[in-house]
Design a protein that fits this description.
The protein is an alpha/beta fold. It is built from eight helices and seven strands. It has a single domain (4-168), classed as Lambda Exonuclease, Chain A (Alpha-Beta Complex), CATH 3.90.320. The N and C termini lie far apart (61 Å).
């Protein structure tokens, strides 16, 4: 069981599954920058970031901005939307900008919310959804054993990363193009290891003719 001081943000799991270096920069170095994609995401989440929006609908109660935690897995965060059906079963709904698509890091975020709800409410959570604001469509996520195992592995990896003070290496691939931390990370420079090694050698190698 984790202590409150050791809880990590659920959002860190999505950041890690997308790019471990991004996760470390945000959650370890406290670095962040905005771009058009993060601003779109912020706009979507503004719609659901008010707990006073909770309401009753046919066959369910809809709660917004519900705080979540798990001391078993060391998680804390806030759900965008949780729908509670008449049998009491909770159904997490994660909001994203853009159109309907399948992305594992979105599924991991939904699964982590399910793990928290199971601990908090002592119930089983077998499915949830990702809602895509641009297409106004949901994609259901089955919280099966495979996704649970992947999510638990990512949770452990994030705990290990944030407790190690280790910065993952820059990779400079297609993920970097739309990353808001691109200018902070500098992947083109830091991933060019052969060039950096050559510069290091030239800088710190002493010419014998220059010895005194």
């Amino acid at each position: 069981m984790f202590k409150e001081a050791d809880l990590i943000q659920i959002s860190a799991l999505q950041h890690y599954s997308y790019c471990p270096r991004q996760c470390a920069l945000i959650h370890q170095e406290q670095e962040f920058a905005e771009n058009v994609y993060t601003l779109r995401g912020d706009a979507v989440h503004e719609r659901v970031d008010d707990p006073k929006l909770s309401y009753l609908a046919v066959g369910k109660r809809v709660e917004f901005a519900l705080p979540l935690y798990s001391f078993q897995y060391g998680l804390a965060g806030k759900a965008d939307v949780i729908e509670f059906f008449t049998d009491g079963a909770p159904y997490p709904v994660e909001y994203k900008h853009g159109s309907k698509r399948e992305k594992l890091h979105d599924d991991i975020q939904v699964a982590a919310q399910a793990l928290c709800l199971e601990e908090m409410l002592a119930v089983s959570v077998l499915k949830g959804s990702v809602y895509y604001a641009s297409s106004k469509k949901r994609r259901e996520v089955l919280i099966n054993e495979n996704l649970r195992a992947v999510t638990q592995d990512v949770i452990q990896a994030v705990h290990n990363l944030l407790s190690s003070d280790r910065m993952p290496a820059a990779v400079n691939d297609r993920r970097c193009l739309n990353c808001s931390l691109h200018d902070i990370c500098k992947p083109e420079i830091l991933s060019a290891t052969s060039e950096l090694n050559q510069l290091y050698t030239e800088l710190f190698s002493l010419n014998p003719d220059e010895e005194t």
